Structure to design on (692 residues):
C-alpha cells in the first residue's frame, strides 16, 4: 500500500533512474506525482474510423503505420511523411520538424494513436493530419492498452524525458496501489457545503476520468476534481495566513486612544477634503490602532489616489499619544519629498521631524540618532538607512512603509523589530491583481483607496515612434508655454557600447538645445544626494521646466503642475514601471499627457504592453495584463518575495476559488476548537514549494 508521503521510487515502474529524473523536477513523493495533473484529456473512447473523417474535425484515430519516409524540402526543412491505415481507409500524416522524429519509430505495423485536426492536402488532394499529437502504443515496457485507448485518456507534460504515456502508466500504478484511507485535509463540512469530492476520488478521477465526466470541463480544469484540488491548495495557504492573523491578535502591541484632541489635530493638518475612500481607510486604520494588538495593515491605492495624507493622519494619532513614528521610503528623492511634505503639513502641530540622509556628517548623525533615542524627535523619515543606521527609538509606536513592493518582506520585518510590536502600515500602489495580493500579503489586513481625488481628468496616453520626435517636442513646448512642466525619462544614465539606447545624459544635452530659453535639468541616481534634492525641489517649486531623468523618479514623486511625461524607449520598461512613471503626471486639475516613445519595430510583448498602457489608466486592469504577459513569478520584484508556487492552482484563472478559500479559512480559524487539528494537518501536508 502506498501512502501519499512515500517516496516516489516505491511506485511500480519507477526505478532509480526515473526517480532521480522525477526528483530533479521537484517530484519526490507519491503526492507530488499525483499532483502532476494532466495538461489535457483526449476522447479515445470514440475513435473515428479513417473512412469517416471530415475536414476541420478534431479527431482521435487509432491506426497502424503503413509506410513512412523522410522528405527533405528546400523551404520547410525535413518532413516526416507517414501513411497510416485502420482497415477502413488510409490517411497521410505529416510532421514538419527539426529532425527529432525518426522513420525508424514509425516502422510499418506499429500501432499509433493520433489526435489533431483533419486537414486537406491540396497538392495531393488527400486528407491529412499536419503535426498531430501522437502516441506509439507499443513503445517501451508498459503494456496495458486499457489505459491508453477506449477511454478519456490523460495527456501529460513530459518530465525530464519521461513521456506522457510513460507518466500515464506510472501514475496509474501509483493510484492502483494507493492506500484506501488517504487522509483528506479538507474538513468534511467544507466538502459537503461546496460539493467537493474527497481527496482519493479526486486523485483517481482527475487522472482517469469516467465516461460520465464532462470532457470539456476536464479540459478547462473545471471538473469537480480539479476544483477540489485547486481549492485545497488555496485553502491550506489561506489557513496559514488566517492563523498568522489570529496569532498576531494575541500579541500585545501599542494601544492608542483617539481623544477629542487627537481628532481635532487630525482635522487641522488636512489641506483638502479627504475623499470618502480616504476616510474609510483612515477609519479602518484608527480602529486597528485602538486595539490591544498591533496593526499590520496594507494600504493599497492606485498611483495618485492620495495615500500620503492618510499616512500623515495616522502619524498624528501616534504622536498625540506620545509615541514616535517612522516613515520609510524606497528612494532618497521620495524620502526628501515626504520630509518636506511632513514639515509643511505637520507644521501646525509643531512636530519635531527629522530625515535620515545617507550623506549626513558623522557628528550630525550622532546628534540626530541621540535625539531619536531620547524621544525628542517625534517623526523620523528615511530610506532603508533607517534600518541600517541602527537607530534606536525611545517609543516607536507606528511604522509606515511607503511603496512596500520596493522593499522585501524581510526589510518590513526589520523595521517593525525596532519597536515593541509597533503598529505597521505598509502602503503600495503596485498594481498587483487581487489574487496576487492575497497570496503575497495574505497575513496583512487590507484597506483600499479605490477613488481618485476630485477634479482629475484622466491622463491621455499616446504611442509615438522615434521619427515623430519633433512633433512630440512641439507638443511639449506648447505645454511649457502654458506654464506647465514636463518629465522626460530615459532607461539609462549614459550611452554605452553594450546596448544601443538613448541616455539621459545625451538627452539632456539634446533637449537643452531644443528647449532653448527653458530651464532644463538632469536628475539620476549617481548624483550626490544634496544635488538630487536641490534639483527635485527646484522642479517642485516650478523653477525647472523640463526634468530629464532616469527611473529615480519612478515612485512617489508628486509635482501637480507637471503635466507631460515623455518616456523614451518605453519598450524597455515593464508595465508596472510604465504605470508608475505615468502616475507622476495627472496629479493636479490640468489635463495631462503621457507619451510612450519607441522604435518602430517592436516585439510582441512590448507591443502588447504599450497597447495596454494606451487603452487604460486602471492600475488593476494593467496588473492583470501584466500577470498574463509575464506570469506571477515575474511580476515586478515579486520573484524573491515568496509567492508560493502552486502545483495545481493558477492565479490567473482561479481567482474565484482563491476568494472562496480565503473566506472559508478565516471562518474555520475563527472556530477555535478546530484550530489545533488544522495546524496539525497543515504541518503534515503543506504542498507549497515556498511560503512567504
Ligand atoms: P499616492 O497615493 O500616489 O501616494 P499622493 O498621496 O502623493 O498619492 O497624492 C497625490 C496628489 O493628490 C497629491 O498632490 C495630494 O496632495 C493630492 N490629494 C490627495 N488627496 C486629495 C484630496 N482628497 N483632494 C485633493 N487632492 C488630494
Ligand atoms: Mg505615494
Amino acid at each position: 500500500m502506498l501512502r501519499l508521503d512515500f517516496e516516489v521510487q516505491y511506485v511500480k515502474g519507477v526505478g532509480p533512474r526515473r526517480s532521480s529524473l522525477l526528483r530533479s523536477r521537484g517530484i519526490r513523493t507519491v503526492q507530488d506525482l499525483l499532483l502532476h495533473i494532466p495538461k489535457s484529456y483526449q476522447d479515445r473512447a470514440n475513435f473515428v474510423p479513417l473512412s469517416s473523417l471530415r475536414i476541420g474535425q478534431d479527431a482521435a484515430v487509432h491506426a497502424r503505420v503503413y509506410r513512412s519516409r523522410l522528405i527533405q524540402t528546400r523551404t520547410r526543412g525535413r518532413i516526416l511523411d507517414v501513411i497510416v491505415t485502420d482497415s477502413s481507409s488510409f490517411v497521410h500524416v505529416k510532421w514538419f520538424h527539426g529532425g527529432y522524429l525518426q522513420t525508424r519509430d514509425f516502422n510499418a505495423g506499429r500501432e499509433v494513436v493520433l489526435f489533431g485536426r483533419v486537414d486537406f492536402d491540396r497538392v495531393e488532394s488527400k486528407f491529412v493530419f499536419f503535426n498531430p499529437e501522437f502516441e506509439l502504443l507499443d513503445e517501451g515496457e508498459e503494456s496495458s492498452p486499457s489505459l491508453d485507448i477506449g477511454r478519456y485518456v490523460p495527456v501529460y507534460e513530459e518530465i525530464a524525458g519521461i513521456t506522457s504515456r510513460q507518466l500515464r502508466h506510472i501514475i496509474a500504478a501509483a493510484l492502483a496501489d494507493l492506500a484506501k484511507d488517504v487522509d483528506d485535509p479538507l474538513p468534511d463540512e467544507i466538502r459537503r457545503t461546496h460539493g467537493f469530492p474527497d481527496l482519493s476520488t479526486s486523485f483517481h478521477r482527475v487522472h482517469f476520468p469516467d465516461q460520465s465526466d464532462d470532457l470539456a470541463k476536464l479540459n478547462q480544469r473545471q471538473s469537480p476534481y480539479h476544483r477540489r484540488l485547486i481549492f485545497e491548495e488555496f485553502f491550506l495557504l489561506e489557513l496559514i495566513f488566517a492563523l498568522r492573523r489570529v496569532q498576531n491578535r494575541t500579541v500585545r502591541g501599542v494601544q492608542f486612544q483617539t481623544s477629542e484632541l487627537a481628532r481635532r489635530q487630525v482635522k487641522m493638518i488636512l489641506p483638502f477634503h479627504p475623499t470618502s475612500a480616504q476616510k474609510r481607510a483612515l477609519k479602518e486604520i484608527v480602529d486597528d490602532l485602538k486595539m490591544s494588538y498591533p496593526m499590520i495593515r496594507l494600504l493599497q491605492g492606485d498611483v495618485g489616489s492620495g495615500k500620503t495624507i492618510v499616512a500623515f493622519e495616522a502619524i498624528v494619532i501616534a504622536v498625540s499619544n506620545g509615541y514616535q513614528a517612522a516613515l520609510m521610503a524606497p528612494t532618497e528623492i521620495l524620502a526628501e519629498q515626504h520630509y518636506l511634505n511632513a514639515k509643511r503639513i505637520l507644521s501646525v502641530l509643531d512636530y519635531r521631524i527629522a530625515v535620515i540622509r545617507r550623506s549626513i556628517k558623522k557628528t550630525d548623525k550622532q546628534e540626530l540618532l541621540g535625539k531619536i533615542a531620547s524621544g525628542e524627535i517625534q517623526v523620523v523619515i528615511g530610506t532603508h538607512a533607517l534600518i541600517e543606521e541602527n537607530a534606536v527609538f525611545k517609543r516607536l509606536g507606528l511604522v509606515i512603509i511607503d511603496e512596500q513592493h520596493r522593499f522585501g518582506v524581510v526589510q518590513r520585518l526589520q523595521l517593525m523589530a525596532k519597536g515593541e510590536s509597533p503598529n505597521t502600515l505598509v502602503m503600495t500602489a503596485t498594481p498587483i491583481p487581487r489574487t496576487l495580493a492575497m497570496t503575497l500579503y495574505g497575513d496583512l489586513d487590507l484597506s483600499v483607496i479605490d477613488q481618485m481625488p476630485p477634479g482629475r481628468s484622466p491622463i491621455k496616453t499616446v504611442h509615438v515612434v522615434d521619427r515623430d520626435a519633433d512633433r512630440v517636442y512641439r507638443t511639449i513646448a506648447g505645454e511649457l508655454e502654458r506654464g506647465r512642466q514636463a518629465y522626460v525619462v530615459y532607461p539609462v544614465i549614459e550611452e554605452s557600447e553594450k546596448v544601443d539606447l538613448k541616455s539621459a545624459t545625451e538627452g539632456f544635452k539634446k533637449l537643452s538645445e531644443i528647449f532653448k530659453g527653458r530651464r532644463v535639468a538632469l536628475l539620476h541616481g549617481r548624483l550626490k544626494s544634496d544635488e538630487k534634492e536641490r534639483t527635485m525641489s527646484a522642479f517642485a517649486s516650478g523653477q525647472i521646466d523640463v526634468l530629464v531623468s532616469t527611473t529615480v523618479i519612478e515612485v512617489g514623486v508628486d509635482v501637480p503642475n507637471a503635466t507631460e511625461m515623455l518616456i523614451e524607449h518605453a519598450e524597455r520598461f515593464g508595465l508596472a514601471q510604465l504605470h508608475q512613471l505615468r502616475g507622476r503626471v495627472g496629479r493636479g486639475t490640468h489635463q495631462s499627457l503621457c507619451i510612450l516613445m519607441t522604435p518602430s519595430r517592436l516585439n510582441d510583448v512590448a507591443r502588447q504592453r504599450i497597447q495596454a498602457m494606451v487603452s487604460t489608466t486602471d492600475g488593476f486592469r494593467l496588473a492583470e495584463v501584466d500577470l498574463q504577459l509575464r506570469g506571477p513569478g515575474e511580476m515586478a520584484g515579486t520573484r524573491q518575495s515568496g509567492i508560493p508556487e502552486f502545483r495545481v492552482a493558477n492565479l490567473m484563472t482561479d481567482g474565484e476559488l482563491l476568494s472562496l478559500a480565503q473566506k472559508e479559512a478565516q471562518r474555520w480559524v475563527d472556530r477555535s476548537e478546530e484550530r489545533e487539528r488544522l495546524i496539525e494537518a497543515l504541518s503534515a501536508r503543506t504542498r507549497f514549494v515556498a511560503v512567504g
Remarks:
- The longest helix spans residues 224-250.
- The CA atoms of residues 187 and 282 lie 37 Å apart.
